[in-house]
Amino acid sequence: MNSAEILLILPELTLTIGGLILLMVAAFAGDRVAELTNAFAAMVLALALGLLLQGHVAAGPIFSGSIRIDAFANFAKILIYGAAIISLLLAPRFFAREGYRSEYPILILFAALGMSIMVSAHDLMTLYVGLELNSLAAYVLASMSRNDSRAAEAGLKYFVLGALASGILLFGMSLIYGFTGSTNFSGIALGFAGAGKLGVLVGVIFVLTGLGFKVSAVPFHMWTPDVYEGAPTPVTAFFASAPKVASVALLVRVCIEAFGGAMADWQQIIAFLSMASMLWGAFGAIGQRNIKRLLAYSSIANVGFMLMGLASGSAAGIAAVLSYLLVYVVMTLGSFLAVLQMRKADGEMVEDIAALGGLWRQRPALALALAIFMFSLAGIPPLFGFWPKLLVFSAAIGVGLIPLAVVGAIASVIGAFYYLRVIKVMLFDPPSGVEFPVSGGWMERGVMGLAAAYVSIFGFVLVGPLAHATHHAASALL
Amino acid sequence: MMQIIAFYLFATILIASGALTILARNPVHSVLWLILAFFNAAGLMLLLGAEFIAMLLVIVYVGAVAVLFLFVVMMLDIDFAALRSGFVRYLPFGALLAVVLAAEMLFALGSWRAGGVQLAGRIAPVHSASSNIQQVGELLYSRYIFLFEAAGIILLVAMIGAIVLTNRPRGGVRRQNVAAQNARRPKDAVRLVNQPIGQGVEL
Lengths: 478, 203
Hints:
The complex is a heterodimer. By secondary structure, chain A is mainly α.
């Protein structure tokens, strides 16, 4: 370790030190300063984001091979910090009724720290430490509203299933360590060259199972709808954006850097996860009546499309996954911002899709924004959500995964049904009689408007820089 | 040779007692099997030349099992009378485990003196110049410094989480107020009465 290595982890150090200082403030000043803590936490994240944008990268792993600061990690971290800032912005008003708590922004900071360790991991131990840091903060965030029984259920369910997944992951790691003699990704990649591949392969399957749970890929997705529905909406928005980026990026890094020698083996596992997620995400969402559950299934289906890019295993595929992550985060956060606008005059949240009837006549701008997000999530061509889907499809076809691409296309068409149903309810159904007064500050509505503008046709304007950034990031891995 | 025999002995008993931990119907038996499993794992560590980890395993895990035992007794609605009445019945079982443990400890110490076990080539050679604790410490603060600090943050987050989820305002709870408790004088709390015999007590 030397001072140059310290300088490379400045964003992480900023989050840690900022989190510790705010923790002290929160411990002594209590919940009275919660909104102030929130603003400062957002500033700490913005500072870390600013440090990241300088684009410092290390040539190789640092801290004795524990972590890697490369363009891939930086791209993922930018998305993570950005999503965390947005989740902080929309929290105080939501929790205003039950009292906003100072610990919320601090836990978000530490969760962001854990995710940034995850995407930089170059060692199985780093991977696990980052994952646990993120998960522990997430379990607490999910059950933060103690008086809401649904939130308590969500937190408990998330915790129990998360602990099980961590156990499976650790078991796989111990097998991999036993058979390759290293926990370091470079060491594991070397170990694949040796004989006795069967044992390692069992380990790989266990590790992919554990990570599959974290990205909520079918068949390890069972927790997602319940947790997304039960957790407070800002927390759900956070879960659906930043941790998704972190765990998908982590999965990509593990598959390419550590298991690169067994690509033919993990490729079929990832392809199966991708296929199952796309199909089940589409079919499962059809019967949903709650908008948060619907978005949960939507996130499952979207993870399926991202895994299709990973399954191709090529540089184009990885770049497509990164593009997909960016657009997905914008679409999802935008949708949740719109969901947060749907509250009655007395402040009660409306999550029932049927209650959105006639929203078009009451609040045309909100209905238009939500319609743009839904069209974009469905991947309908003129909108920007179509672009990353096209990239993953072309990456999959590029390496000859035609059946996977066909299943993806079918799932995409089925999935369009439930997105369009939301639009149909808003635009054509008779008014449901629920009043939605204008709520939220200019900041929330401004961010929602920007997100809607980006995922409508305006995103195409920035396709050039995006392609450059994602290819640069992907080339850091391959 | 002795180390190999010791290894297979410990490994066999470890797996058997691990299986019996989850198969035993009686939770008290389960806990006893668990203790046996931890002791055997510690024996394996001793054979590998990791004395520090072996001692940690015994102190931390067996200590934790004592707490676990309390939880089992508290939470599983076990009839204490029935438990005590079974003391004589459990005595042979407990004594058997104690004998096994004592014999194993002697065996482990004997084979520890005979040198480390050579089952396969080690990935990282062990320097015998410095003690176990020193080596662990040196690694933690140099090679694994990043992970060590990150693990510290995890514990901090766990602590914050536990406090956030359990310390909440709710009615009907009398919280400790040190100043008020200290300011209370005997004359406010105690009343001396010369009680006449044969009459009721006035409260």
